[in-house]
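Many introductory courses stop at the sequence. We go one step further.
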Amino acid sequence: MKLIYQQMLAFFAVIITVIVVLGFSFIRTTRTMLYNNSWQQLQQYAASIEKEAIRYNTKTNKVVGFNQQFLSDGTVILRDQHIHFSVYDANKKLVYPTGIGASMDSAPGGSIYDPKISAKDWKKLKQNKIITQSPHVTFRTRNRDQPVNTPSLRTIDVLVPLFYKNGSTKKFVGAISIGSFEQTLQASEQQIEKNLFIALLVSGIAALLLSYVLARYSVRRINRLRYATHSVANGDFDIQVDSNHKDEIDDLADDFNGMVSSLRESNEEIKRQEKRRREFMADAAHEMRTPLTTINGILEGLAYDAIPEEDEAHSIELMQNETKRLIRLVNENLDYEKIRTGQIALNKTNFDGAEVLHNLVEQLTKKADAADDHFVLTAPDKLPVWADYDRFVQVLFNIMQNAIQFSQGSAIEVTGQRTEHATVISIQDHGIGMTPDQVKNIWERYYKADPSRKSTKYGESGLGLAISHQLVQQHGGSIEVDSAENEGTRFTVTFPDDGYDKPIMDD
């Protein structure tokens, strides 16, 4: 079953259930109200009869009987309203209608209104209690031997005690049983039920239409997500679903939009990584081909005596250098993979970082002079560092050498300082700088901000910064780059203290 039909069925079932419950409750309440109103009306008629029917002798101050003429007239009047009554004296003797066989012309079959008052009810009447009775048989045949068990002659009755009041004196003088045909109430009840049925029918149709509208509204919103999902599956990562932030479907739309944004970023990253993979393969091939080509050329020259004897020593030295370059290249690749996958163990110790900085500056001064650069070192006398000593030196060496490579005739500022729970090393050059896109890719293997410098006299491979980045992360630290094109670059490396060095590994 489709969702729209499920939704319609659910909405329709809920609405109809509510309507039916309310309908039955209304019928029940209406029925009770009709009976209560009828009983109250009968009590009012009985009160009128009580007021006018009792005959009183003012000389003897006694009740002498009942006004038969008034009772007869009342019978005629109430008969047209399908109301009948009987009057009993204090001895439970039927006073009206007179005569056991008296008939009611309005009753079929010559039957008479003859309710039976039980001893229990009579006792309650003497206690001045009004008794209401639910529908029951009150009509009997002339000889009173059989009840007229006809639904049309069932009545609801009210038994009202008759008391004569003289000052503070009250005297029980009889009772009135007055009843109305149940059929009269049923006619009103049936009319109400008919109207209610029509209302239920109209409400049912309205509920069906409303459930369709609500279901279509919900399904349409879900279908938007469905179509958007298909678009994403077909490679469209720019699609977004409108959301009003009102309900769970809107929350789902927000989550979907967030998912699409993540997928778009992931797809872009995959494309970028694939591009970098191709570049890596090309760069790796290029880095290896150059020394191999050199070595092969020299070997061919030696094999065919194309190289003068006085140049053979230089050629062999050149082959040795190129071989070392290849070995270094392979080792750096292996080192990078080991670092990236966490296959190396760091031997962290506490040592003086200021001493390391002085040694590195001294070691790289010759290279800096060749590029017309110079170092400016700012560090305290003691600079505590918690790190692997060799890896610490490796990281700073790579960054400082990179600063020399991409600057010319400027100062390279090396700063060491302590912060809370960490040692921070900053290396600032004033060279060619980098664009934001170059900064984004600087940690990739074989990536070089300046493609024209693929080969230098130092034999840079493009792996130094990638390795440094992985090493700093394994130390639980951070390495940040702030660069502007043609203005220079600043590397900021943070090594946390013991207990604050949680490693961060990239995939």
